[in-house]
C-alpha cells in the first residue's frame, strides 16, 4: 500500500512537472521572438554562426541580436542589452562568457523571457569554479521560472514550418522530417546532422542538451511525445540522472496511448568504476545492468551503433508495425535472399509459410525456375511487373506480417519502375515493407523513389532484416500482456525497527539473525532458527528443529566458511554440542580478537533449486534487483536478470523467465517443476523491501531454496549491507 | 602414425594440385589472348556486355570475338568458330546456351585453349538435366586439362595494369586495389562492385565462382596468396565442399610465411535441415558449428555483414597489424571518444596506459582543459597542430600498439590539414592507425586525403574500433604458440575389428560393451565391466569390482532409464542379484518383444567433473568433434566447443578452454583442479578415432569423468552410431 501511495504522489508530481515543462519548452521550440545575446559580426565566431543560422532558417518570429558594441549584426539592428529591445522576448540564446551568464539571465528575467538556451561552455565540465557558475545560473532560472537548455551545448533546431528555428551553431542544416534527436554530445550532433543530410534523413526537432543543468531527456521526451511532427525519438545518452522517474514516465510514452517509439544509444558502457563491493549482486550489477534494465523497463530500444540507430529510426518513422513476426522476403537473386533469411531468423523473426493461394498466384506469374516459396525469388531477369505480382501476392497473404524487398541490379532490372510499385502496395496492405536496393550508384534512381515515398531502404539486406526485427520487438512491447497484480501484506514497521536498531548500534552488515527478521516481516519464509550462546542451547535447538546448519555469528567474520565457522547437516543434539564447541574454537583460533555473539542454528532447508535474489542501490536510479540461479550459474555463467525497483507482477515473471537456466525451474531433465509463483512473489517482496527501506544499500538472499510447485521457497542465507538514509526513499 | 601418413600423402596431393592450379589460373587471370564465344552486337545482351567490358578494360592481350553470324563485334573482326582464329588462344569466355557448352569446350580444347570461363546459366542450378550438361562440360575440361570458372557466373576481373582484364558482365568497373573478392553469388558481385565504387575501394582480382564445377575457393585462395597485387582476400561463401583440405591449405596461407589474411561472410546459416539425430553431439552440431570450426581452424576471420567485411578488408589492405592490444584514442570531442572506448574494450582491446613521458609531452602541447590521458581529448577547438602533437606523442609511446583517430567537424577544425598529418606519422611508426572523420559531407575533403594515403576511415568510431580489433585478432592468430605434439599409441586394428564385426551383424548402434572395447583400444580409460547374463554373474561382478552401475543391454532399448533399465550404486552382491532380476523384469514388462542380451555391470566411476565428448561426421568436412560439460551445461546452456578433426595439441587445449564453464575444470569455487592434461589427450584420442574409422558416424562419450589433476579421466558411458564406410577416410 505504501508503494501505491508513493507512486500516486509521484504521478501527481510528474503531471505538475509536465505542465510547467510544456510551457517552458514551447518557448524554446516555438518562441514568438528570440534575443541572441552575444550575436557577433566576427567571422568564425559562434555568436555569428548562431545568429546566421536563425536568420537562414525561415524563422516565423522576430530575432533581436544583442551586442553592446555593434549597431547591427548581419544587417539586423542590434540592441546593447535585452532591456533595450522594444518588444516581448520569449527566448534568449546566450553566447557570452560563462561568468556573465547569471547576470544576463537576470536581465532576461527582468525582460520577461520564458526560456534560455545557453550555448557557452565553461561550466561544470571545467571543474568546481565552472560548476559554481552553473549552479548560480540554474538558481536564477528557477527563481524566475525560466527553463534552460544547456549550458555547454550546440543549441536546438525545430524544422516545423510554422516556426522554422535553427538556434544552433551547427554547420549543417537539418532537413524537415519526423525523427527527433536528443544528444548529450554536441560533437556528435554535428556529425549526425552531416550523416543525415547525406542520407536524406529529416528531423522534426534536434536538441543538444549539453550539461542538462535544467532540461534533460525526460522533459524533452514528454514534449516530443506531444509534438505532432515527431514520430520517433532518438537519444544519445552518456548518463541519466532520474532513473525511477524515467521508467515511470517513459513506459507510458512508449507503451501507452499514442505511443512514441524511442531508440537510444548509451555510451560509456565500460567506464565502470572499480568500487569495492561486498555482495554477489554488487559484483554482478553495474551501470550496464542498470541502463539495460532502465531501457527495457521503459520500452526504449537500445541500438548498438549510431548507424543502427538511424537504420531503425527510419523504419519506425515511416512504416507501420508488424502484427506478428512472419516475414516474406522477395528477391531477384539467391545469395542476398539467403543473407536476408539468415538475419531474419537470427533476429527473432520467422519466414512466413505462404498460403496455398499465394503460391498458386506466384506460380502463375513467375517463371518455372523462380522460387514460389519464401524467400520468393523472382529470378535475375525479373522486370518490375514480376516484382509487382510477387509483392501483391505476399502482402495479400494473411500469413505474412511484413515484407523484406530485395533488388540487385542486373541487366534486365528496372530499378526505378520496381521502386515505384512498392509504396502504394505497402500502404494499402497496412503491413511494413523495408527494402534493400543493393549497391549504391547503380540503384540511386530507385532509391530516390523509395525515399520520396518513405520506404526505408538499406545498402544490404542484413540491415533491412534487423530494422524489421526492431519494429517487431516494439510491437511486442506494445502488445505485452499485463498480469494481475498481487497484494502482498508486509510489516514495514517491524523491518524498519530492526534497521534502525542496527544503525543505532553502528552495525553495517546484517547477517542471518537480523536479516531473517527483516525478511520475515516482508513475508519471506525463513527457516526456524535461534542464536545459541552455549552448546546446550545449540543441542536444544537441534532437538526442536531437526537437522540444522550451524554458523558462527560475529560482526568481524564475514566469510564464515573460511574460518571453519560453518557446519551443515547437524542431525542430533550430541552432534550439535560437538559442533558448537568446534565452531567457537575455530573462530578463536583464526581471529582471536573477533567478538563472537554465538552460533546461529537453523533448520536445514528442504530440497529445492538454489537461487539468488539481490538488491544493489544506485544513487540516481534507486534499487536494482537481481535474480539468478545460485552457485556456478551466478559465478561462472553470470546468468542473472536485473530490473530496477519497483517491479510489478509482469516484471517479476520476466526476471524469472529471462535467465538462460530458466528450464531448471521448469522441470528440465525430469526434475520437479519449481514453485515459480511463490518465487515471483518473493521478487515482488524484494522490490517492496528495496523501495520501502532506502537504508538497504545491498542485499543478497543466497540461496533462496525454491521447492517444488505448491511448496514455496525458503530463505537459507542472507546478508544485508546498510547505509544510513540521507534523503528521500529514492 | 596412420594419421601422420595420411596427412603426408595429402600434402603431396595438395602440392600437385597447386602446380596444375597455378598454371590454369594464370590463363584465366592473365591470358595472352581471349576468345569471347557468344560475343554479340545485340543491345542489352550478356554477350555484348562481356565483350565491351574486355574491350574497355585496357586489356594488354588480344581479344577475338567468336560469332557464327557476325562479321565484327563492336568493330572488332569476328570469327565464326574458335578454329578460325589464326593465333593461339589462352582463355575462352563462353556465353552460349548451356547445351552447346560441351561442344564449344571440345572446340576450345582442339584449339589448345588452357582455360574457360563459362558465364552461361542453365546448369546444375536448374535441375537434373542441367546437372548432366555440367558434368559433361567438366569431363571435357578434365580430359583436356582445361581449367574452368563457372558455369553460371558473372565472370572475373583482374585490375593488374600488366593485364587489365574485365571478363565479366558487371555494369560497374572495379577500381585497382589490393583486395581480392571471391563470391559464390553473382548478384552480390554486382552490388559489391557498386558499393565499392562509391566507397572508393579497389580490387586486385574479382571472381564470381558460380557453380564451382571446377575452380572453387581453395584453388583461388592458393593463386591469390601468390598474387603480388593481393594483400587481403574476401570471401562470400554459401557452401564449401572440401572441409579438411580447406583447413590444411588455408591455415598455412593465413598463418604461415608471407601470410595473406582472409575475411569471409558465410550465408545460409539458418538453412539447417531437420534431419533426425541420435546423439547430443548430433543435436548440437550443425552447419553453423562446422563452418565456425572450419574458419577458426584455418585462420579465416568471419564477418557478420557485408559492410563489416569491407570495413575490415580496408584495414587489412592498408595497415600493419598491432603487436598487442593496447590502443590509444585521439579525439576532439568527448562523446565520440567514449563511444570508441566502449567498443574498443568490448572488442577485446585495451586502452593503453600512456607512459609518463607521453603525458608530459601532451601536457606541454595541449590546453589545460584537454585530457592528456587515454582517450586523449585535444578539445573541440583543436587545429591540426594539436592533433599532430598528440598523434606523434602516442605513436612514440611503447605502451601504444595502435591508434584510433577521431575527428568531429567543429568550427576551428582543420579537416584537410588534420587528415594530412596522419599518413607520414603512421607510416614511420609501423603501428596501425584507423580514423573516424565523423559525418559525411563536411569531412569529405579530409576523407579524400585519407583515402589517397590509405588510412582506413569510418563514418563513426564504432566501426573504426571494430576494424582495429579485427587486425589484433589476426595478429593473435599469426603469433599463436604451438604446443609440443603428444605421441598417443593406439590399436587401430583392434577397434576396426569391433566395428567390422558389428557392421557384419547388422548393428548400427553400439552401446557400452563394444563402445568400451573401441575406446580402450584408443587408450581411453574405461571402467572394469562385464556383461552379466544371470543374477549370479552380476553378483560376482559386484564382488570383484566394488560398487557398480547396472544397465540393461538390448538393441531395442535405447533410453534405458525410461524403462527402469538402470541402477546405480549397487554396493553388494546381494543387491546386485536383486537389481538384476528387477532390471530384466522391468524390461520384459515395458518391451516384451525386446531382445535382451543381459545386464551390463560396471564399476561406479570415481568422483570427477562430468564432461561430454562427441563426434559427428559431415560429408564434405569429415568428423566434427565436440566438447562440453555434461548435463545441464550441454542441454540448457549449450556451452560446447567444436573443431573439425584432425586436431593437434593446440586444438585440444583450445577446445577445453573455450567453453564458458572452463573454470569448473580449473578449480573454481574451491574445487580440485581437474586433470586437464589427460582431458586434452582424450580429445586427441577422439580425433584419431574419428579420422581412423570413417564408419563412426556419431559418437557420444557422456559422461567422461575428469578426475582431479594426475588422476586421469574415465569413460562412464558411451554410445556409437555406425554407418557402413562407402569411401576413403575423409
Could you describe the 3D structure shown?
The structure is a homodimer of 730-residue chains. With 730 residues, chain A is of the alpha/beta class. Among the domains of chain A are: 321-478, Succinyl-CoA synthetase domains (Rossmann fold); 528-604, Dna Ligase, domain 1 (2-Layer Sandwich), CATH 3.30.1490.20. Chain A is 40% helix and 20% strand. Chain A contains 23 helices and 30 strands. A 7-stranded mixed beta sheet of chain A has the order 9-8-11-10-12-13-14, sandwiched between helices. In chain A, strands 20, 25, 26, 27, 28, 29 and 30 form a 7-stranded antiparallel beta sheet that branches. A 5-stranded parallel beta sheet of chain A has the order 2-1-5-6-7, with helices on both faces. In chain A, helix 1 (2-29) packs across helix 6 and helix 12 (356-365) runs antiparallel to helix 13. The first copy, chain A, is flat and about 95 Å long. The model of chain A is unreliable at 1-14 and 271-278 (pLDDT under 50). At the A-B interface, helix 5 and helix 11 of A face helix 5 and helix 11 of B.
Question: Which terms would index this structure?
Answer:
homodimer, 730 residues, alpha/beta, Rossmann fold, Dna Ligase, domain 1, 7-stranded mixed sheet, 40% helix, 20% strand, flat, disordered N terminus
Specify the oligomeric state: homodimer
CATH topology grouping of the domain at 321-478 in chain A: Rossmann fold
- In total, the number of strands of chain A is 30
CATH superfamily of the domain at 321-478 in chain A: Succinyl-CoA synthetase domains
- Secondary-structure arrangement, i.e. CATH architecture of the domain at 321-478 in chain A: 3-Layer(aba) Sandwich
**CATH level 1 name of the domain at 321-478 in chain A:** Alpha Beta
Q: Helical region count of chain A?
A: 23
Largest interface, counted with CB-CB under 8 A? A-B, 75 and 75 residues
Please report the distance between the alpha carbons of the first and last residues of chain A.
17 Å
Radius of gyration of chain A (Å): 31 Å
- Strand % of chain A is 15-25%
Q: What is the typical, i.e. mean, pLDDT of chain A?
A: 90
Q: What is the strand arrangement across the widest sheet of chain A?
A: 9-8-11-10-12-13-14
Low-confidence stretches of chain A: 1-14, 271-278
Class by SSE composition of chain A: alpha/beta
Q: What's the main sheet of chain A like?
A: 7 strands, mixed
Shape of chain A: flat
